Amino acid sequence: MIEVLIDLIRYFLSILKSNQLDIPLIKPIIALIMKIVAQIPIPYLSNLVDLILAVILWRPLFAVVVMPGLTVLMIYLLYIVWFERKLTARIQWRVGPLEVYRPLRGAIQALADGIRYLFQEAIVHKDAHRPYFVQLPILAFIPVLLPIAFIPAGNVVGIKSPYAVQLTIAFISLIPITVIAIGWASNSRFAFIGSVREALMYVAYEIPFIVAAISMIFLYKSGDPYIIVENQWIPGAILNPLAFLVFLIAMLMATSRLPFEIPEADQEIAFGPFVEYSGILFGLVMVLAYEKLYVMALLFTILFLGGWNGIYISLLGDLNAPIWLTIKTIVVISIIAMVRSMYARYRIDQAIRIGFSWLLAFSMVALAIGVVIGYEGGI
Amino acid sequence: MKVEFKARRLDLLRMHLDVIREAFKQAVAPDRVTVEYPRERKKYPANFRGIIVFDKDKCISCFRCAHICPANAIQMTFYEKAWPGIDYTKCIFCHFCVDSCPTGALRSTKIHDIAFATMGEMKLNAVQMLKAPELTREDSFTVEYVVDPQGWRLEKKAEIDELALEQFIIPEKRRVSVCVDPESCLGCRLCVELCPNDAISVDRKANKLNILPEKCTGCGICVRNCPMKVLELKEVK
């Protein structure tokens, strides 16, 4: 019986070993670990450690779970919440989060908040549609996190698809539906107003956003991130600056950043669709917009900023691409975070007018540029 | 019309660029003027009104501090003489008492940040006011607001501001009470009863007030209370 099991494990190991990350930097460390483990007199221990290392360094799993997947996403969430508050405070002449571990200038504030959410009671009020109210924050993660499986970083990719860009856009377009459903399940007047505003913003940004992305697909003649990144010896932002601008503004609208923070308007409708949530459920819905921003920024980096192109460090091997992609994405998000402290909120009619007038017009012009450059075959 | 519209659009664009430039500037080097209080202490001007201390040897029990106090925060209590006690729940730190004190018995300190545990503790008597309250210093920086044509700045120095009391020597003018118009005196003897030092007596045979200059401290209680206003404080050389 055990031999069959071991054979099965060996078979899995052979599959895992055939697609391992090649990182010269950690090879001596792995050899050292294996050497130490071999001396411990426990049967099958060395095989087990080998299996664990093989699982971690298996390319698809590494892409989804470590980088640019969930681990980086968690670290990014802890970073961006603090960074956004701190940056806004600096620009507005305040100090920002500071007293939670002062030597790091309050850097673990988000972690402390997260722990507090975890231990707080999650209240489900009487009028809420209980099953939807509790399940939707978790269901909302499906369209947010699935694109990560399709977005590649060099050799490190979860599911290789020639339609990765289109798939990512399709999943991003699904997110507002869960937000609207959250607002409906909350069954409160503020949540209702918030979900209606979310729907309004959705129709305002969605068309220019998709048209801008399609213009880039026309420009590179493919929706395959590998071809897109390969073709970008000139960044897409320079090739098609209008699409760059439209995508950037649509990104601000889609993640309800401040000039378009209409669905969550704190001062008017107290966090909109999420007003009834508390405890860890609030923690989950609060990071929804930040995760959406992360996915959109990944797409933005691949389409406009040359994806994982960067200085190749041979010591890091396969890790180069994910690191460059992550760095570019985080830099993009950090710059976008600054917009929050600069602008006041638009009215609903102003935001929709922007979406349907010049944002749409710019996206159409960008589409024309994309078609022309793609047709000429200039790149 | 068309030109105007164009100009407005250009202006808007310029304003957007201005906003972005200013935001980047502030993000790199913010002009904020926040004082991180317990770790930094703001430097105040030399005579900035602070907690008041009391010198019992100089006090002549003239009650002027209690009379002038607009918030009615000073209560005179009798120890060896009548001494003032300040109720900091009422005190508005106008320092009229310090200004009005003829002998300089009330003085300001450089301590402006004192916390009390209870409301009861805020009512200080004269004995508690004899020395400045003790401070636990947590600050290691001194900051100072600098206002120049460019705007406000916060200047930070890695030194501790000295909070020691500065002794102000007030030029003391010795004055005594003198009856300037003895003919108008009613003989009510209010001044005799009010004098805290028993310096005034009535000579019944000569029908006049007898003010002993060596006993008179010049507190002026008799002057203030005389119904006919015949008493006056006169300087002694």
Record field, number of beta strands of chain A: 0
The helix count of chain A comes to 18
Order of helices and strands of chain B: HEEHEEHEEEEHEEHE
- In total, how many domains does the architecture of chain B comprise? 2
Characterize this entry briefly.
The complex is a heterodimer of chains A (379) and B (237). Chain A is mainly α and 379 residues long. Chain A has helices at 2-18, 27-39, 45-56, 59-66, 70-91, 109-119, 130-139, 141-150, 164-186, 189-220, 225-231, 236-239, 241-254, 266-269, 279-286, 288-304, 320-337, 348-376.
Structural features, described:
The complex is a heterodimer of chains A (379) and B (237). With 379 residues, chain A is mainly α. Helix content of chain A is 68%, strand content 0%. Chain A is built from 18 helices and no strands. The termini of chain A are far apart. Chain B has 237 residues and is α+β, with helices and mostly antiparallel strands. Chain B has 2 domains: 40-157, Alpha-Beta Plaits (2-Layer Sandwich), CATH 3.30.70.3270; 175-235, Alpha-Beta Plaits, CATH 3.30.70. In chain B, 20% of the residues lie in helices and 22% in strands. Chain A binds chain B through residues 87, 90-91, 93-95, 338, 341-343, and chain B through 19-20, 23-24, 26-27, 30-34, 36.
Layout: helices, strands, pairs:
The complex is a heterodimer of chains A (379) and B (237).
Chain A: H1 2-18, H2 27-39, H3 45-56, H4 59-66, H5 70-91, H6 109-119, H7 130-139, H8 141-150, H9 164-186, H10 189-220, H11 225-231, H12 236-239, H13 241-254, H14 266-269, H15 279-286, H16 288-304, H17 320-337, H18 348-376
Helix pairs in contact in A: 2-3, 5-17, 6-15, 7-9, 8-9, 8-16, 9-10, 9-16, 10-13, 10-18, 13-16, 13-18, 16-17
Chain B: H1 2-28, E1 40-42, E2 52-54, H2 64-68, E3 74-78, E4 82-86, H3 96-100, E5 106-108, E6 141-148, E7 151-157, E8 175-179, H4 190-194, E9 200-203, E10 208-211, H5 221-225, E11 231-235
Parallel strand pairs in B: 1-6
Antiparallel strand pairs in B: 2-5, 3-4, 6-7, 8-11, 9-10
